[in-house]
Amino acid sequence: MAKTALYLILLALPLLAHAQTPSAELRCKASGEDFVYDCSIMLTRDGQPLAGAEVTMSADMPSMPMAHSVRPAKAQPGTKPGEYKARLDLEMLGEWAIKLRLDGPVRDLLVLHYEFDSKGAKPSMGGHKMEHKKH
Amino acid sequence: MDDYAIGVLTNITLFSFVALSAYLLLIAGEMSFGQQAFFGVGAYAGGILTALYGWPLPLAALAAVALGALAQLLVALPTLRLRGLYFAMATLAAAEMARILFELLHWRRSIDGELAGPDGTQGFRGIRWIFEHGIEPLHYLGIVGVLLALVLALFLMLERSKLGATLRAIGQDPELAAAVGIDVQRVKLGVAAAAGALAALGGVLYAHHNTYVEPRNFDIMLGVHSLAYALIGGLGTALGPLLGVLLDIGVLESTRFFQGYRMIVFGGLVAVVLIYRPRGFLDERTVQWLRQRFT
Is the pLDDT assigned to residue B16 strictly greater than 50? Predict the structure, then answer.
């Protein structure tokens, strides 16, 4: 009996580790002010909304690393579970690497690539997927 | 200090490494448009060693620096025979070759059940040594700042040494330097290796700050900026490239006054400075004047 329980625990461990993996999706709309976007971040973990995280969003331009210093924005919880909202003040249109730093129940760093135009942002280079690792 | 200030200062510090590497070649009389390649070599090598093989960052940084030096030495062996514009074009071609190699580089390993490592144009994600070791951004800025201070101290010592005078002699007139018995080719190869090492150090620090890199990070923009910072800041002292970085990232960028037009302003500034002060704000004459005045 004890052996069976041990096997079950060992089998469940990878699943538990997988459950800790967060995922993020970004939706941004132009605010009307030049290069300023109102963004909504949906955080999920194992398909479930991830609530209670402290999310800080920053950005860098892949083609001009270190040349832009976008002010990091602390995201506020949105109306839906797992939703966070932040305003992103970029310097120009084009592709940006969005960095999400998660603190709180899950500590992680996600990097998403999005193409920003005059209306909003769409994923680029597989940007809808997230970079993750358990913590 | 808030996150924004820390970010700006970290960017200034990281950019200074690659600007100093361009400066080192400039004072030896060579203009390189390709220092971004060795920055990339450092970033990829350091990232691979920490993220895929679990090396501690200091050790990975040493290996990356050695690799950066070797890479630039290999490029310098055939290209240092060229002069002026031809050398500049050769370094640019070498850097583009390196960038394309990064695009072709697929070095993936399973780490904790997930594939990690360079994935061609998709980049290299998960360079998380700093994050996993709980090093906060302010602490990392301190580490990078101390390393830059050490590099600057070495530069200032070099500039007061016989080797520093030799470098400037080669930079001013290589034929005359050779005529007085200086092995110009050998000194230039040493300079190239040191410049590659310096750029690679910046690269490994950048990769771990950013947690991901991709081939586009190392395109010509980075090379042109690093060269421009050295030229604007001045070739009279190693503080010149730092002044160039400070002017662009510290003033033009962080004030956001020129939002959207900063690159145009920066390009105009480069043109004006090169016309009126071809060796930058802190050129040799200004540095000499400042030394006489303050010492």
Answer: yes
Quick one: residue A32, left, alpha or beta (phi over 0 = left, psi -120 to 50 = alpha)?
Answer: left
Instruction: Give the pLDDT score at A20.
Output: 59
Q: Is the Cβ–Cβ distance between A44 and A82 less than 8 Å?
A: yes
The model's pLDDT over B100-137, given as tens digits with 9 standing for 90+, comes to: 999 999 999 988 888 899 999 999 988 999 989 999 99
| CB contacts, 8 Å: B131 with chain A | 109
Q: Give the pair of three-digit tokens for residue A41.
A: 């971040």
Answer whether B260 sits within 8 Å of A69, measured CB to CB: no
Q: Rounded to two decimals, what is the model's pTM?
A: 0.88
What ipTM is given for this predicted complex? 0.80
Separation CA A121–CA B77 (nearest Å)? 46
Quick one: tokens of B239?
A: 């503080």
Q: Could you give phi then psi for residue B127, rounded to 5 degrees?
A: -90, 85
Query: How far is B106 from B108, CA to CA, in rounded Å?
Result: 6
The answer to whether the Cα torsion of B88, B90, B94, B99 is positive or negative is positive
Helix (H) or strand (E) holding A101: strand A94-103
Chain B residues within 8 Å of chain A (Cβ atoms): 3-4, 7-8, 11, 14-15, 112-114, 121-123, 125-126, 128, 131, 206, 210-212, 214, 216-217, 219, 221-222, 225, 248-249, 253-254, 256, 259-260, 262
